[in-house]
């Protein structure tokens, strides 16, 4: 069975400061078009991180929607503004952790959106590996978007 595409739209190509460690560190708005599945999952990763791919955000069991609003709370189970379950990112925190590359570096951040055939039986706070295993053969659609963020040498301490 061929994978159906999802269109993933960020309202930026370079992260606005409010979505990074240099600002409020709030999750960005994401537009998702073409969902034909009942559930969505999102993974945000930094493939340019110094020690390998760094997972900034994993969220799943989102009832299909065209808009993920910005500023989702850092809680493992959300009931509003969207229903969702969030996992533990590579910072060891539940929810979103924004871009924070080393001073003087610019990294790309990949938002992967999966259309799922049904909800995942995965406990809140699970990690990226567990999410990948749980999604397995339930993935029916896929889409992605990139954005970049760079920090000047004068910026605060690095986090990834």
CATH architecture: Alpha-Beta Complex
Rounded to the nearest angstrom, the distance between the terminal CA atoms is: 37 Å
Question: What is the overall silhouette?
Answer: globular
Largest beta-sheet details: 7 strands, mixed
Q: At the fourth CATH level, what is the homologous superfamily? A: PEBP-like
Strand composition percent:
35-45%
Can you characterise this structure?
The chain is mainly beta. It has one domain (4-150): Alpha-Beta Complex (Phosphatidylethanolamine-binding Protein). Helix content is 5%, strand content 36%. It is built from one helix and ten strands, in the order E-E-E-E-E-E-E-E-E-H-E. It has one helix spanning 128-135, and strands at 4-5, 7-10, 30-33, 39-46, 54-63, 67-68, 77-78, 84-86, 106-116, 139-150. It has a seven-stranded mixed sheet with strand order 1-10-9-4-5-8-7, with helices on one face. Strands 2-3-6 form a three-stranded antiparallel sheet, with no helix packed on it. It is globular, with a radius of gyration of 15 Å.
């Amino acid at each position: 069975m061929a994978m159906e595409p999802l269109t993933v739209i960020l309202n930026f190509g370079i992260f606005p400061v409010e979505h990074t460690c240099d600002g409020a560190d709030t999750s960005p708005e994401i537009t998702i078009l073409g969902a034909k599945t009942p559930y969505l999952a999102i993974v945000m990763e930094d493939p340019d991180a110094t020690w390998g791919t760094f997972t900034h955000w994993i969220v799943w069991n989102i009832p299909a929607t065209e808009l993920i609003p910005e500023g989702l709370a850092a809680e493992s189970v959300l009931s509003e503004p969207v229903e969702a379950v969030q996992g533990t990112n590579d910072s060891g925190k539940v929810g979103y952790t924004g871009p924070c590359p080393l001073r003087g570096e610019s990294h790309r951040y990949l938002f992967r959106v999966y259309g799922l055939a049904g909800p995942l039986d995965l406990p809140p706070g699970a990690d990226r590996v567990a999410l990948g295993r749980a999604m397995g053969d339930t993935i029916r659609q896929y889409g992605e978007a990139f954005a970049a963020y760079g920090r000047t040498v004068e910026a605060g301490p690095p986090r990834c």
